[in-house]
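About this split. The held-out portion is used to measure sequence recovery: a designer receives only the structure tokens and must propose an amino acid at every position. Recovery is the fraction of positions where the proposal matches the reference. Here is one held-out target exactly as it appears in the evaluation file.
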């Protein structure tokens, strides 16, 4: 992994920590606990302000205890309305799933909670991710259903052994236990992290997490569910089709798909075939119609394979 930065994740348990000392000791980003279930972290606003004052990229996580998809959506909406709205975040917004209440539940049910949370965030133009330990991913989640979300993986050892490095954006390794670094930063015991993807550039370029879109136009990777915004399909001719084709061409150039697109501004046979190849690569239904799931798949493939 060529890109690597060092950071920490903080919650109210680190109240009073010196951000100046964190920066002087090499911290390059912070991930803040936004909420525990439906309770806002009491130090979030203070930490957010201090990080922004020092130009530290900021991410957020919510510790979930939801056991239904409805509960997960409620948590996501609480986070949006009480923590995220009106602010800008250069790093993903994560669901932290690790509570023991999930140990006795089916993997599929736990994964459905993660998906409901992340899909709600994405429908509101946030870059969503999932946090869990390597053991939790393997034992209590159907991880094959979660590969379209960036992973923040906890493993307190000398190396990260999670098998699919392509989906790992963050590694929480702790400090001291693996002797990578001291477990003390700014005079406190702090969980520590490496970031392996340039999330600030990705998030700003797509106009996510409170930022305006920057750079070349691309199809909006986070569109509300198709039921409310419609879809792109064969026969369509509009600006959305043009932007879709730009992304298809990028994926073809990167070797992700073999099919090009029609030489016009219409969603034709060639575009439909290319969309089906993208859907096949993302392991979703190959219907040739571009809805919310396919848009997320395009975003994931672009982030993974296109510089």
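Reference sequence for scoring:
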């Amino acid at each position: 992994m060529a890109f690597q930065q060092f950071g920490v994740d903080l919650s109210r348990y680190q109240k009073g920590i010196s951000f100046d000392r964190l920066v002087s000791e090499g911290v390059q980003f912070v991930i803040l606990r936004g909420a525990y279930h439906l309770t806002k972290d009491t130090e979030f606003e203070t930490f957010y302000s201090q990080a922004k004052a020092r130009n530290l990229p900021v991410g957020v996580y919510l510790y979930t205890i939801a056991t239904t998809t409805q509960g997960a959506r409620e948590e996501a909406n609480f986070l949006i309305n009480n923590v995220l709205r009106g602010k800008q975040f250069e790093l993903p917004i994560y669901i932290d799933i690790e509570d023991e209440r999930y140990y006795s539940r089916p993997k599929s049910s736990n994964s459905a909670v993660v998906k409901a949370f992340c899909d709600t965030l994405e429908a509101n133009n946030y870059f969503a991710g999932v946090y869990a330990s390597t053991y939790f991913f393997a034992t209590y989640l159907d991880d094959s259903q979660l590969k379209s979300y960036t992973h923040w993986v906890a493993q307190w050892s000398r190396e990260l052994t999670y098998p699919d490095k392509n989906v790992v954006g963050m590694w929480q390794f702790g400090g001291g236990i693996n002797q990578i670094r001291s477990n003390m930063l700014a005079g406190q015991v702090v969980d520590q992290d490496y970031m392996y993807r340039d999330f600030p550039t990705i998030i700003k370029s797509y106009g996510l997490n409170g930022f305006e879109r920057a750079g070349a136009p691309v199809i909006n990777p986070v569109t509300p569910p198709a039921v409310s915004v419609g879809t792109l399909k064969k026969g369509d001719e509009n600006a959305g089709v043009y932007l879709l084709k730009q992304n298809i061409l990028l994926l073809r150039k990167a070797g992700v798909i073999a099919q090009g697109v029609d030489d016009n501004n219409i969603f034709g046979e060639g575009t439909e075939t290319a969309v089906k190849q993208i859907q096949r690569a993302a392991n979703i239904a190959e219907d040739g119609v571009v809805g919310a799931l396919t848009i997320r798949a395009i975003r994931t493939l672009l982030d993974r394979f296109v510089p």
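Annotator remark: The longest strand covers residues 29-36.
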